[in-house]
Amino acid sequence: PGGGAWVVVCLRRLGGYLQASVQGRAANEGWLFFRQVMALGQAMAALPPHDGSPASIRTAVKQRHDLQVAYLGQQAAEAFYGMDIAYDRYMADRQAIVDNPSLSDTQRQQQLQVLTQSLPAAMQSMLAETRGPAQLAERTQALREQGASEADIRRLREQQFGADGAARLEALDQQRAQWEARYQGYREQRQAII
């Protein structure tokens, strides 16, 4: 169906749902809020993209936050977008620390740790969960470089992901080793032909 007709049908259904589900003034407020959210979406889509630099990201975050407050009010903007804004600010600040050439590796790690600790507890937990696999891979690589046994690596993996997770990671290691062996064979055959 045509895009415009479909939107009209959806809007009518939403309006009918609000009228049937919510009484009087609350239905009108719900409808008004929905219209504000839709207008906010259009306004945010019209914002220029950032170029990836920390300053540009901060500007984009501020522009989005300002629009959210202007269209929805401070309380609703924080309720709906507060975590997104906090995360965007964190990422811009993190990139500025990572890109700072005047910091030593130790200073950089310290500043990143302080920055992460300044986040709300829920966001710190979310970041820890998403960073878990990467941190495990780094620790596993360091253990292997230090000559750790496969049993040591399995214990580390079990601490982080449990016995089932450790078994899956071992299977993945085996698949990668098989693939690397096949690829090495291909490279040797290619070199022999050349």
Word description of this protein:
This protein has 194 residues and is mainly α. It has seven helices and no strands. It has helices at 3-21, 24-45, 54-72, 74-99, 105-117, 121-145, 150-193. The longest helix is centred in the C-terminal third of the chain and has 44 residues, at 150-193. The protein is elongated. The mean pLDDT is 86.
Radius of gyration: 26 Å
Gap from first CA to last CA: 58 Å
Q: How would you sum up the global shape?
A: elongated
Please give the largest β-sheet. none
Task: Determine the strand fraction and express it as a percent band.
Answer: under 5%
Residues in helix, %: over 70%
What is the residue-averaged pLDDT? 86
Q: Count up the helices.
A: 7
Total strand segments: 0
Query: Residue ranges: pLDDT <50 for 5 or more in a row?
Result: none
Structural class: mainly alpha
Secondary-structure element string = HHHHHHH
How is this structure best summarized?
Helices cover 87% and strands 0% of the residues.
Task: Set out the fold topology.
Elements lengths: L2 H19 L2 H22 L8 H19 L1 H26 L5 H13 L3 H25 L4 H44 L1
